[in-house]
Amino acid sequence: MTASELAAVAALAGYPLSTAHLEEVAAILAGMMEDIQRLRDLDLPDDVEPIVTFRVEPWA
Amino acid sequence: MKSGAVSPVELTRACLDRIERVEPVLHAFVSVDADGALQTARAAEREITAGRHRGPLHGIPIAIKDNYDTVGVATRNGSQVFADRMPRQDATTWVRLKDAGAVLLGKATMSEAAWGVDFPPVRNPWDVRRNPGLSSGGSGAAVGAGLCFMAMGSDTGGSIRIPAGLSGVVGLKATYGRVPRTGVIPHTWSLDHAGPLTRRVEDAALVLGVIAGHDVNDVGSAEVAVGEYLGDLKRGLHGMRIGLPREHFWDRMETRVETVVRQAVRDLEKAGAQLNQVSIPHMAGALGAILVIEMASVTAWHDKYLKQPDRRGKYTPEVRALMDTGKFIFATDFLKAQRLRRVLVDEVRAAFDGVDVLATPTLPLCAWDVIESHVQIAGQPEHVLHACWRYTYPWNLTGLPALSVPCGFADGLPVGLQLIGRPFDEASILRVGHAYQEATHWHEMRPPDPVGRTV
Fold first, then answer.
1. Domain assignment present for B179
2. Is B287's Cβ below 8 Å from some Cβ in A?
3. Chain B partners within 8 Å of A50 (Cβ)
4. Is B224 helix (H, G, I), strand (E, B) or coil?
5. B299 contacts B328 by C-beta, under 8 angstroms
6. Min Cα–Cα distance to chain A from B449, Å
7. Distance separating the N- and C-terminal Cα atoms of chain A
8. Per residue in B397-437, pLDDT tens?
9. Global pTM value
10. ipTM
11. What per-residue confidence (pLDDT) applies to A53?
12. B250, B292, B295, B361: which could form a disulfide with B261 (CB 3.0–4.6 Å)?
């Protein structure tokens, strides 16, 4: 993963970064990718919903 | 206090004198408000003398981590970005502690934005060349060194329990939603917990009784009745069933730490507990989940400050780089992580079938040298920040209550035992922790005088 590869993603995110800062991000992501890939590779049952904080209360 | 045998003013002065003496070495406080503390102590003394004793915390000097809003005292989140931040409202937990009569000595040092390093580095009372743990390092050091009787911390992946374990004190992360987060600067909304560090489990139980309870201003706050934590403490250990997870929690740890914690587990058995093995199969693969949740969440909260050039420049390069990285976490990975959390909750629930409490080491290592960024554990190099939270973050992902109690020493450095309970069953982990302290007395040991020691 290189700074130039990440530059397009940063632009898409509306968060342009300098080459130096992109290189720092690339290094951090490289250190995390094994754990993130392990998460991505997990085969979870279809009926498992994500935990998201959304609760609708009756209106008074 | 109630009988007048001890004066809040004398106690506060004693703490302030000790802080003045020890602080140049430990750096546990970012700010000390001696005048304010003495003013509060004098008011407490007047009230107690007049027969209006508010409870066990009345007149007791405490510290609060620098991410809790305290009106009149800057709340900087350990960061130059918020150097001039004067909160307009007190954190709910601080309101409750104030109402109970606690005396605020000052704000405790913390890691930058609860993520980076602290400036200057806080020192471990047991060995001033070493880190007391993070991110509530100042809170851990302050209690460990006897500078105050309780310090509030915050815990997103272990930041109460890690300094508790490394500084030789008790640290309590209650069930998610048990203690309000209102007025504590967020790190990761769905992982953050507020809670105390104390010398004794009994004190942690006492504080929990004061700070716990529903708060309408905290969307994660639980409408669950607050327990009688002090009353339940003395029930002892006999018949308690303690589960030891097979996976993850004994992996890659320092041999000296394992020796101490295994002895602590045997001591629990000698005191009357039954031990059982339990299984949480997916826990070993959960690191990716907390990484994506934490990084995306922290960046989302700091987003507006990162986009202001003058503020952005005030983050340290290390923390700013971590926050920039949060922009590169994909929504699909975030949601996958949140699905894995649900699987983990179900597995942990199944693991509790037939046990009352789980027990694990708090950390896989002892306190490290402040200049080290990597350590060797079981022959493998590891970044200290990766190592220190391995056994604590699972209980942020699952929201269960977790307590760290001192359980001995390895090469003169504190070691912690972590006890985990069912949702809202803080009473059981406090009961086990208290019984352990009654049987072992590690919590009564005091560190050597830090003054004059080489850093």
1. yes
2. yes
3. 335-339, 341-342
4. coil
5. no
6. 39
7. 53
8. 999 999 999 999 999 999 999 999 999 999 999 999 999 99
9. 0.96
10. 0.90
11. 66
12. B361
